[in-house]
Amino acid sequence: MNKFLQAVSGTSRPVVIFGASVIGKIVLDSLEILNIKPAAFCDNDARKQNEPFHGYPVISFERLRADYPAALVIVAAGRYFNEISRQLAAAGFNDVFSDSDVIGCIDFRRTPRASLEKIMWHLAKIGQLAEMMEFPAGDLHVPRLNVVITTRCTLKCRHCSSLMPHYRKPADSDTSEVIAALDGILSGVDLIYHVELLGGEPFLHKDFAPIARHLLDSGKVLHLDVVTNGTVVPAERELESLKHDKVSVVIDDYGELSGKLAPLTEALRRHGIDFRVNRHWAWADLGGFEPRRRTEAQLKELFAKCNFNSCAELLDGVLYHCPRSSHGTKTGLIPDYPADALRISALGPDRAAAQERLRAFFLETAFLRACDHCDGNTSDSLKLAPAGQNMRGVSK
Ligand SMILES: C[S@@+](CC[C@H](N)C(=O)[O-])C[C@H]1O[C@@H](n2cnc3c(N)ncnc32)[C@H](O)[C@@H]1O
Ligand code: SF4
Ligand code: SF4
User: Fold this and answer.
1) What pLDDT is recorded for position 108?
2) Ligand 1 within 6 A of 227 CB?
3) Which residue's CA is the closest to the ligand 2 atom numbered 2?
4) Amino acid 362: pLDDT
5) Range of the structural domain that residue 142 is part of
């Protein structure tokens, strides 16, 4: 029997989730499938302790020790797992588990797909989805798709990886063209694990909610994040139509630049829309646009280690592999390399042929010509202060 199931069976000991984060939410959803109700979340970040997380109190480590000394603790903290496990062991907590221990208890064959949908995205991210669910062998699954709906932004971040300050005429994408391109992709793809709707600032586009809806109504998207910089609060009606159990709003907290953070979180809470606030410690310096004259082997090496290598991006009807490639090409800062991109209108009506081209694009690309004009987003390049400004952009 799975060690978490063994520990939790027939005991009245409280269960505490360590990590009020996106992984903590997935653990919460997994516990719900297992019919287990946790007592609380615990988090070392004092800012998270001020308010409930999905209806549960978020307690400090000191309170965990004082109030729940016999707790079974699930560490839902990604790369901080080892550090937190050591913290717990030093305080005498012997029954410590991971998110995978909990997910491993779920009987995937007997649980209805509707209950599993919330955690499928996470399973996909940790590479276990295909192992746990039975999908037809020929299906095309896409791990991630960014959908750019506008190049307008309220900020002008000097080192924006999407190069927004370089656009001379920033504009919203035409809604019917975005939808036509999405339909072209969706007709050849069986499942997209994670879509990000972004810009620029996506809340500046009047149709961000209908575009999100269109994606969700396809039934082929496991999770959709709308990524905003916390400067715009959409109208009540727009927010209401964004409400969906597969939608989260990701608010990048750029400190005082994200001036609408408080009213935005308040509005999202009021509408029952899931959200998370991202604090950035460092941004990547991708360097200038001049060619580095790398060999193919060097391009492959850089692409393999770049954190943006799986950020396929749809921009004005064309698929690219990363924001540098899409916006670099669009602004003319990087030469237009046809091999780096896929024009959706060129896919043609034959579904099988379109699927093969999409499969090659999404799953078989080893490097980009654009990588020769870039230093990549790697652990070595995370050195810039996030969201440093040149000057102010437009306001709503
Ligand atoms: C281009 S922004 C678009 C959405 C929105 N305007 C925002 O800033 O949240 C998408 C994401 O890219 C991140 N980003 C921008 N420039 C970056 C850089 N140089 N290195 C790492 N991440 C970057 C932002 O923090 C944000 O999470
Ligand atoms: S807020 Fe900054 S990072 Fe986001 S799109 Fe605008 S300029 Fe780029
Ligand atoms: S190294 Fe390549 S994949 Fe990475 S950001 Fe640069 S162009 Fe994109």
Assistant:
1) 86
2) yes
3) 157
4) 95
5) 135-384
